[in-house]
Design brief:
By secondary structure, this protein is mainly alpha-helical. It is built from three helices and two strands; from the N terminus they run αααββ.
């Protein structure tokens, strides 16, 4: 079976393809709307379940790729240089 590259971490960026897409979305959304996306916004964009989005947010936070204030809505901030983010698909 052919395995997807979604979970392969790039040695140069420090995040997976899927994580990169979430980071790019958070960055683009924040630039466009002046506030971070809610998990519901990410759910709609990526067409995944709420637990999947929440788990990704927790993983990004644990990896030091974002910072957030637990319990505070729309508090996600990307800590990765925008020039290192992939193109959002």
């Amino acid at each position: 079976m052919n395995q997807s590259n979604d979970n392969c971490q790039s040695p140069t960026t420090g995040f997976t393809v899927k994580q990169g897409q979430y980071l790019a979305f958070i960055h683009a959304y924040t630039k466009m709307f002046g506030r971070a996306p809610a998990e519901a916004d990410m759910k709609r964009h990526f067409q995944v379940t709420p637990p999947s989005v929440h788990q990704m947010v927790l993983n990004l936070d644990r990896a030091g790729l974002i910072e957030r204030i637990p319990g505070k809505a729309r508090s996600i901030r990307v800590l990765v240089d925008p020039d290192d983010l992939p193109v959002l698909k």
